[in-house]
Design a protein that fits this description.
By secondary structure, the chain is an alpha/beta fold. It has two domains: 133 residues, Rossmann fold; 140 residues, HUPs (Rossmann fold). Helices cover 39% and strands 24% of the residues. The protein contains nine helices and twelve strands. The strands form two sheets. A ten-stranded mixed β-sheet has the order 3-2-1-4-5-12-9-6-7-8, with helices on both faces. Helix 5 crosses helix 7, helix 6 crosses helix 7 and helix 8 runs parallel beside helix 9. About 3% of the residues have low confidence. It holds the Pfam family Usp. It comes from Streptomyces nymphaeiformis. InterPro entries: Rossmann-like_a/b/a_fold, Universal_stress_UspA, UspA. This is Nucleotide-binding universal stress UspA family protein. Belongs to the universal stress protein A family.
């Protein structure tokens, strides 16, 4: 089945920035781009004149404006635009059968931590089976450094981070960029490590060499698969979110994995992904693990 990149548009500067990033990524990867706008008639319980035909025309206008903007900037791009008769979250998730990735807009950091990404965006990220890229707006454009690396966080075992590492290497190969892989670690509490774990750390020469070895082992199959991609390794003591954010200043893209968790207030995307989405200065790709 043919693949495409899908970008959600809603008329906001954030979604236009997302569409622009998605267009450039589609060209890097040699894929078509589909712009998607969700709309369905849902009359409000208000004493107002509500015209479904007028609202539908407005929805099409949002879609056509985004399509015209992207087509003008990238005339060589294979581009389609679709009005999806559904709610925004369901509409985007409904494109996953053909989507290589979903791209959405993000407002980034500000005063109301926890609501900055938007409830729709957070729901899409938590529920999607495909990579989701959140792009911050700068007046409808996402400024990208002319050069820079794809930054990826490596956590846990090689299997735990395989999806995020694979996406990072694939993206870097398509862009002709390097990968910078970061593994954060913390000092164990008295009972955190089993005797077997401590023995392995001792055999490696200590905790730092042990963590460095774990990162090398996780990267090994991806170095072999993408031999032309330069790789930098970085192991640092600290929380994963803080270490990744400190390394994100020169990144074209930050890639993190996530395991969605259900809580009393709905799906949660994990502390590392949450920090990256709200505070990273570059676009953030959130990759479902396993």
């Amino acid at each position: 089945m043919s693949r495409e990149i899908v970008a959600g548009v809603d008329g906001s500067p954030e979604s236009l920035a997302a569409a622009g990033w998605a267009a450039r990524e589609a060209l890097h990867r040699g894929l078509p781009l589909r712009l998607a706008h969700a709309w369905r008639w849902e009359p409000l319980d208000l004493p107002l004149v509500q015209d479904p035909d007028e609202q539908q025309r407005a929805a099409y206008a949002v879609l056509r404006e985004a399509e015209a903007t992207i087509a003008e900037r990238h005339p060589e791009l294979a581009l389609t635009a679709t009005l999806l008769p559904d709610t925004p979250v369901s509409a985007l998730l409904g494109t996953e059968d053909t989507a290589e990735m979903l791209v959405i807009g993000s407002r980034g950091h500000g005063a109301l931590a926890g609501f900055l990404l938007g409830s729709y965006g957070q729901q899409v990220i938590a529920a999607s089976s495909r990579p989701v890229v959140a792009v911050r707006s700068r007046d409808g454009e996402q400024a990208e450094p002319p050069s820079g690396y794809v930054l990826v966080g490596q956590l846990g075992s090689p299997e735990d981070s395989a999806a995020a590492l694979g996406f990072a290497f694939e993206t870097a190969a398509a862009r002709g960029a390097a990968v910078r892989a970061v593994r954060a670690w913390s000092l164990p509490s008295l009972y955190a490590y089993s005797p077997g774990s401590m023995r392995l750390a001792d055999e490696a020469g200590g905790l730092v060499p042990y963590e460095e070895k774990a990162l090398r082992e996780a990267l090994a199959p991806w170095r072999e698969r993408y031999p032309a991609v330069p790789v930098a390794e970085h192991v640092e003591l600290g929380s994963a979110g803080e270490v990744l954010l400190s390394a994100s200043g020169g990144a074209q893209l930050l890639v993190v994995g996530r395991r969605a968790k259900r809580g009393a207030l709905g799906s949660r995307i994990g502390s590392v992904a949450h920090a990256a989405l709200h505070l990273a200065p570059c676009p953030v790709a959130v990759i479902p693990q396993g």
